[in-house]
Amino acid sequence: MDNKLPESFGWSWVEADMAKSKKDNLAPLHLHIPEPKFRPGDVADFSDIIIPAVDVHPRPDEHVLPADIHPLAYGLVRVLDENHQATGSWNPGLDVATLQVMLRKMLLLRAFDDRMFRAQRQGKTSFYMKSFGEEATSVAATMALDFNDMCFPSYRQQGILITRDYPLVDMMNQIYSNRGDRLKGRQLPIMYSAKDYGFFSLSGNLTTQYPQAVGWAMASASRGDTRISAVWCGDGSTAEGDFHNALTFAAVYNAPVIFQVVNNQWAISSFSGFAGSERTTFAARAIGYGIAGLRVDGNDALAVYAAMQWAANRARINGGPTLIEYFTYRGEGHSTSDDPGAYRAAEEYALWPLGDPVTRLKDHLIAIGAWGDAEHDALIIELSEYVKTIQKEAEQNGILGHGLHHPFETMFEDVFEEMPWHLKEQCAQMLEEQQDKFGSNWEAR
Length: 445
Description:
Layout: H1 13-23, H2 96-121, H3 135-143, E1 150-152, H4 158-163, H5 168-176, H6 209-222, E2 229-234, H7 241-253, E3 257-263, E4 266-267, E5 270-271, H8 285-289, E6 292-297, H9 301-316, E7 322-327, H10 348-351, H11 357-367, H12 373-395, H13 421-438, H14 441-444
Parallel strand pairs: 1-2, 2-3, 3-7, 6-7
Antiparallel strand pairs: 4-5
Helix pairs in contact: 2-3, 2-11, 2-12, 3-9, 5-12, 6-7
């Protein structure tokens, strides 16, 4: 068989063999496997993290074109300086009363987390997730929104509900899945839903809330409404397809939505490099979509507030979507099912160069003469006792494995607007069988 190609191809097998021999001199291809800088037993060293001075990238006008603020996607929006003072053009100028409310909400969230974490360890619920170290990303961000704006949270934003004064007892009832649970035990613990508080139903599947937030924002714009949406996810979730689908739709239709990526450095036990953090910032992903991008000190509550306020103002004037990356650190485990000591250095959070968000806000209030250590300690005790009292109230409705759940017949409810005849028959049959089985004790159940 003649292996020679037609001359019109301009190529011959001899030339192909010569090219192959040249390639044989190249080093073999290989893949890069991301690896965190520190593992258990290592001493964490964050000296490579660049923390720019306040106002290296000043606050732009909300009407600015996304292409004109690319540096903001690589820098770090900050307000609190090394002397705990609020400075620079990003300073939102909040009054003392508002700052004290912000601190109180963050401390209440921390007290709630501690109490529910303990409840899980006591076997009163099956699962819980704390937000230790990330309180500012939910509390301060929510305070910058209007109450009627719709929030699409991930599973670590219980601070949204606490900021909007959702009843703590209802949150605990949901965690316990007891007879007081508004969701009737149909959601896993911590997956709240509170439409009347602008808190969209949580999903256990990562980043499903991103397209939903865009759809809600597009619907609001289509109606000529003034409400916007805000959505949260973790750094690991940015690798999901839903994240990119949402950004595409938002960019194309200029949806009034604020995307937030809480970059806490870890997606369970996988560090953020597996989601692309070794290449660039998460905020820089906005550049490829032609939307505004901000990278923010997530442990600076005033910077978080200022960034959200800027993005919200921009959305309301039809400036389009904004992607905000909160550069922060997850202080404890991913959840009660996780042991961070198995995959990261023990002292990482203590050595985190951006500090603790609660401590930094406290220090700021002390620096301006509006707070004190004694007041702070007293507030911690007050909130701890308050949460403990609410817990006792919730546990009157039942805890895991101790009955006091919603009646069995509720499993047939809330599926159809009008229950069809075959479900009515099945429900009646079940009630009859349970009556026969338990007799007079059935009503007590």
